């Protein structure tokens, strides 16, 4: 096929991926997160087969494993590289928003990390921080929220989540303090019981020895 025809195919794939993203956005607004995720996944069915300059697509990597060549037919035109990068990044970010809504927090963390692989975004750090907070990964959440605040200083949503995080740390510290206090009290109780047990054993032993001595004395008197 001619280079022009192959370039047209690439443009068609990008266009179809963008359509699925828009459909996903529409379902998200309707709070239909399952169908939104379905459309966002379809975006990658189209763009993952494309090859960015200097990178290997998933299809190209598979072809290399099979000892075949993909050629340049799926190469993204230079003028469209940034569009494809932003499309992938924003789709990962939208998937993260869906996963937050359905409480799939580990998947949200993964989607945000993929979005951040294409460049720093305050929203990606923010949503990953929210997911980490729900997972009680408090140190990771703190790092994410601080990075988000560094990119968007004064954002009220970020400040609100930092307050929630501060409360979560306080609750965690209180639970740990209570747990250690309970453990210490148990150890103290066990330590205080041990000497009393030894003291009780001593009189018993003395009593047995006295009984044996009395028995010996009686026996001697009989013999005499």
TrEMBL record:
Record carries keyword Cytoplasm: yes
Recorded GO CC terms: cytoplasm
Compositional bias ranges of the Low complexity kind: 198-218
Listed SUPFAM superfamilies: TPR-like
Transmembrane segments: none
EC code: 5.2.1.8
Protein name: peptidylprolyl isomerase
The species this protein was found in: Alexandrium catenella (Red tide dinoflagellate)
């Amino acid at each position: 096929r001619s280079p022009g025809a192959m370039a047209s195919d690439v443009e068609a794939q990008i266009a179809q991926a963008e359509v699925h993203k828009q459909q996903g956005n529409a379902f998200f607004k309707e709070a239909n997160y399952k169908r939104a995720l379905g459309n966002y996944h379809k975006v990658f069915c189209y763009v993952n087969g494309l090859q960015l300059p200097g990178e290997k697509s998933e299809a190209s990597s598979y072809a290399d494993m099979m000892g075949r060549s993909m050629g340049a037919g799926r190469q993204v035109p230079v003028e469209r590289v940034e569009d494809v990068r932003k499309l992938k990044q924003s789709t990962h970010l939208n998937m993260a928003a869906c996963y937050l809504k359905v409480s799939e927090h580990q998947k949200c963390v993964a989607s945000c990390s993929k979005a951040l692989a294409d460049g720093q975004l305050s929203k990606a750090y923010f949503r990953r921080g929210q997911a980490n907070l729900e997972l009680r990964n408090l140190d990771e959440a703190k790092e994410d929220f601080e990075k988000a605040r560094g990119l968007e200083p004064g954002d009220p949503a970020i400040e609100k989540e930092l307050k929630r995080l501060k409360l979560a740390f306080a609750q965690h510290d209180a639970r740990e303090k209570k747990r250690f206090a309970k453990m210490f009290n148990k150890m103290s109780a066990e330590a205080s019981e041990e000497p009393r047990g030894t003291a009780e054993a001593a009189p018993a032993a003395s009593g047995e020895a006295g009984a044996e001595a009395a028995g010996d004395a009686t026996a001697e008197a009989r013999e005499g």
